Structure formats: structure tokens, C-alpha cells
Amino acid sequence: MKNLKLVAARPDCQRSVINVQGVEVGKDLVVIAGPCSVETERQTIETAIAVKRAGANMLRGGAFKPRTSPYAFQGLGLKGLKILDKAKKESGLPIVTEVVDTRDVSWVGEYADVLQIGARNMQNFSLLREVGKSGKPILLKRGMYSTLEEWLNCAEYILAEGNPNVILCERGIRTFETYTRNTLDLSMVPAVHHESHLPIIIDPSHGTGIREMIEPMSLAALMAGADGLEIEVHIDPPNALSDKEQQLTVAQFEDLMVKLRKARAFIQSLGSDDAPIASEPEDRDARAGKGKTARAGEEPHPFSDAVD
Ligand code: PEP
Ligand code: MN
Question: Cβ–Cβ contacts within 10 Å for residue 141, how many?
Fold first, then answer.
């Protein structure tokens, strides 16, 4: 691809790892979970503690919501960011939250560990430049009408400002298909890995808009080689103020995390050339890393204890 100076795959094929408060995106599967919108303190903190217990690595939640209708819930703004800050203190999870306006980047950045650029703002070049200057980790969602080349050029805007900390997020595109909210383009996982050194995560919540499809598409994303997932979880989805059809319950998220651990152990087993087709249980444990101890002072990765 032309004009990609900083984002293009490196000649030595080295991939970037983005460090978010000790969570390394691009190294091992990272799960970002939480509500579509921050609604109340109780809703956000309960969700944060629940997703952390289930094994999530970061908390998501929108305080600024880019909504189709100007009359729909627009988010709590500063109040929402303060709630996220409390949820971070209670759960220990780093915060991922969207910024929609160049004027807000510096103060939203005081609460966010990762600034999310939403699909509708992917090509807002002044916003890209501003988050580039912030130096913070950026989650750059794919625009719903954008090609891979356009998307990677948007990442280039951020890197060109001296910020190498970009995580790409595929969240579905508009096609003629209307059964799903968007068409989740999982082919972007190998495509991004081929064209760029940046990590790519998948958002099956906005990608499908259908709660029941989140689990199969999450597992498919993992099999495709995604570096992580961003998943909407709510303590009471039917009463959510936004995206009620696509938020998982806590119980559904817990089930999904168990399956993701199993899928990850399976994928790791594929990496071993000499893996026997039918192995003894102790061989399986050894390959899945059971019994390994974490380095001193390091928390074990939530996926490190293999099959439940
Ligand atoms: C979101 O993740 O909160 C969101 C609004 O997603 P998108 O920008 O992908 O529509
Ligand atoms: Mn949403």
C-alpha cells in the first residue's frame, strides 16, 4: 500500500505490542469488556467488578456517545468519566473510553488509559492529529464505509504525530446485508497482520448487533488470529440506555470467557508441529502451560491457566 511509512509491516515482520498499564496488546489475547454507555455508578462498578472476575483485561464504557439521533442518550460526559475513574479504582482495570471532539482530548485523557476513536470519527483528521499529540494508547475503530487502505492511513495520521500506540479495531462495515447490524469483516485480521505491524482486535457487539452472535463471532475472531476483543456487557441489558440488543449479560460473558480460554489453548496446540493428534492429558496440560508459574511480581495472564 502506498504512503504507509510508519504503519506498514516491517521488513523483519516484528509486530508492535502496545502497553496499557501493563496489559500488552499484541502479545496475548486481550479482552476489553463493559457497558456500551456509562449510565450510573452502580451499573458501571458492578459491571467492572464482574468482568474483571471473569478475566477481562480492560474496562470499556462510553461517556460521550456518538448517536444517530440528537435526541438519543448522549452520555454523561465528565460525570461518566468520574464514574469510570471509580470503577478503575474498584476493579483495577484500565479504562477504554471514546473521545469525540478535539477540544476534549487532553482532559478526557486524564481519565482514559486508552482513547477510543469511534467508527464515525475514523476520518476526522483533526481529531486523529490531536490524539496523536496526546501520546496515549489509541483504539482506532474502522469506519463503517472505509477500506483497509483508508483505515491504515488514519492510523498513519496518529503515528505521524509521534504516537506509536495504536490498536486497530474491526467493528463491521455496511453492506447490502441488513440481517446483522453490520457485516463483521474478520478477513481484516489476517489482512492487517499482513499489511501492518499494529495489533487488531474485533468488536463483535457492534459487528453483529445481535447478542446471540457475539459468542460464535468472538471464537471465530480468535481462530482468525485477532489480538483481542471488545465486548459490550451490561448488568441488565433490556434496560440499557443504548445498544440493548447487543450487550451480553454477566453470565453470558462468564461463559464466553471460559470458551475463549479453551479456544486459546486449542490454538496454542496447533502451533506445536510435533503435537500428537490424540494426546495424553498430561501432555495437553504441559502444552497449554499448566503448572507454569508467573515471574516474580507478575500477575498471571487471565488466560494462562488454560482449559477450565
Ligand atoms: C462504541 O464502541 O461505543 C461505539 C460507538 O462503536 P462504533 O464507533 O464502532 O460504532
Ligand atoms: Mn454500543
Answer: 26
Secondary structure of residue 90 in the 3-state scheme: helix
CA 67 / ligand 2 centre spacing (Å): 9
Nearest ligand 1 atom, CA 172? 9
CB 62 within 8 A of CB 98: yes
Ligand nearest to the CA of 36: 2
Residue 252 alpha carbon to ligand 1 centre in Å: 21
The answer to whether the pTM exceeds 0.85 is yes
What's the rounded Cα separation, in Å, for the pair 153 and 133? Answer: 16
- Is the distance from CB of 179 to CB of 34 less than 8 angstroms? no
- Name the nearest CA neighbour of 189 among 148, 230, 159, 128: 148
pLDDT digits 0-9 by tens, 120-178: 999 999 999 999 999 999 999 999 999 999 999 999 999 999 999 999 999 999 999 99
Q: 23-56: per-residue pLDDT in tens?
A: 999 999 999 999 999 999 999 999 999 999 999 9
